[in-house]
Every structure is written in C-alpha cells, then in structure tokens.
C-alpha cells in the first residue's frame, strides 16, 4: 500500500517518517496526521505486525484517531502515532529504544510520543534519554507515570454518561459490564466498575490475566473468548484490547445496549456505526472516552499535576453526554456527531495559526 494512495479513511496525513537502525533492529514508522492545533501527540505501539503494509496502516489509522481525540479533549495538540515493528518481548532493547528516541528528536517537536500497546513507563524513560519530546515517563523522572490510570477513569466517566443517556441515571449499580481485555487499562477499570456496584464478566487471551482477575477480583466472572462475551447477557460492552472488534459479524450477536471501551478504532470499517444505531445499541466513540490517558500525558508537558489532570479527564462525562444528545437530536450516529465536533474545532482553532505572530 503506497502512502499517497492510501484508502480515503487513512489519507490526509501531513507527514509519515520511516525510521531504521539496523544495528539495534529498529524498524519504526511515525505518522503525523495533523498539527493544526499544535504538535502531534500520540503513543508508540510496539507490535509484531505480519508485514509492512499492516504496520503502515496501523500508524496512519491511529494517528488520525489521535488528532480527533486530542481535539475533542480540548487539547492544543495535533494527532500523531508511531509503531515499532517487532516483538516487544524478544526485540526490545535499550539501544533500540534510544535509537527510536533520536528519530523522535529529529522531528524537532512536530511529534511528541508516549506509551501504547507494547511500551511502558520504563521504556519512555529510556526514549527520553535521547529526546525531550517523550511523555508518559515515571514520576521519579518528572513524568506523569502510567497513563492507564486516567484512561480507565475517563472510560468510566464516559460509561456513566452513556448510562445516564440510556437509562436516566449514571449509576452502574445492578448493571452487568462485559470487559474484553484485562490489560493496563482494564485492570483499573474493573475497580471503578465494581466500586460503583456493577457486575463484571471479563475475557482475555492471557492466562496470566485470568489468574490476576481470579486473585484480585474473585467476584468477577470470566469467559473464554470475545464471542462468548458479546453474546452474553450484558448491559454494557467494554472493548479494552485491540481495535476492529465491532464488525459485520460481532454487531448482530451483541446483546449489550451500550458500547463504551478503551480500545482504539473499535469500528472495523465505516458504516459499523450505523449497524449499531440500527440495532438500538448506544455507542460512545472510543477516541472520546479513552482520552483520559492523553489528557494525563499532555499535562506532563507543562509540569505534571495529577489532580489537575483528573479534573480535566472528568469532563469526558460532560462531553460524552453532549455528543449523545446532539446525535439523538440530529438523527445521526454518535460517531458522526463526535467527528463533526472534532473537525470543527480543528478547522476553527487551526485557522488562527494563519495569523502570524512577531
């Protein structure tokens, strides 16, 4: 797939950078979708893609999502994303991460990185040895720490807003939430849900995740796979692993009335949002409700304060409610309403950059 000939839903990027350091084994792609609102902020995904086309596609798709996410979150930041093509368990090394950091630095602030699937706080500490444009570092290194904390909190806020829109109350007591993915975000989200009185049914491909759930939250149930989860008698479905889980096969068997989760790019292709709406399933756009993490790491840019970042993340409740009401009043899917709001802010505020300052 040529970058300039990418499908319409992946096109429009400002810059795509291919990075290679043969000595360390680094193969990375940095995609900058938009800097209309400011430097492009987005995490680094370390993943063993099947081929280069898959890696490019993920970088393009995720970076566009970050532009919309940062816009809706009210941040003066554009959207970007990076992927490192490789196995994070076998291939990750200090030399590779530092080489990657130098490529980030070479963009001179157009792209600011953070953690994502396969990268962690300790990794960002290493990347930051070579660049001043790495966030998600440890608190000991002056960073914001694990961004999963406010990602999970933001998803919880979005879930409460969706529950209020559908059932008239934001309280989740008595509701059953199906959680797909007990990873960095899912583990924090479970606590919020149980503390609010919800019941949880979870699934994960990892046996270690299942053991963790059994040890820490024995009151939660576990099913073997995602198909079993989405066909279960659940009120809310929370995808918290990889994207593309809402598709032509899964939507028809989904029994939940609400979908709110942390996974990026949950809609497998354009049109899935209409399939959900036609079935009466309320979908809170993923890039809106999972923006707590980017709010957390963006606060690091100015000197991190957790309480301030959490207050900003709590506004996800209000924005989610606003988008759901707009979608209902205009007769459009919430995903369309969210896209329009994000695009409007990028256009209106980005236009101001044409006013040159001394």
From TrEMBL:
NAD(+) binds at residues 181-186. SMART domains: ELFV_dehydrog. InterPro entries: Aminoacid_DH-like_N_sf, Glu/Leu/Phe/Val/Trp_DH, Glu/Leu/Phe/Val/Trp_DH_C, Glu/Leu/Phe/Val/Trp_DH_dimer, Glu/Leu/Phe/Val_DH_AS, Glu/Phe/Leu/Val/Trp_DH_bac/arc, NAD(P)-bd_dom_sf. One of its GO terms (biological process) is amino acid metabolic process. Keywords: NAD, Nucleotide-binding, Oxidoreductase. GO terms for molecular function: nucleotide binding; oxidoreductase activity, acting on the CH-NH2 group of donors, NAD or NADP as acceptor. Gene3D superfamilies: Leucine Dehydrogenase, chain A, domain 1 (3.40.50.10860), NAD(P)-binding Rossmann-like Domain (3.40.50.720). This is Valine dehydrogenase (NAD+). PROSITE patterns: GLFV_DEHYDROGENASE. The keyword tRNA-binding does not apply. The keyword Glycoprotein does not apply. Residues 145-354 form the Glutamate/phenylalanine/leucine/valine/L-tryptophan dehydrogenase C-terminal domain. Coiled coil: none annotated. The active site is at 81 (proton donor/acceptor). Belongs to the Glu/Leu/Phe/Val dehydrogenases family.
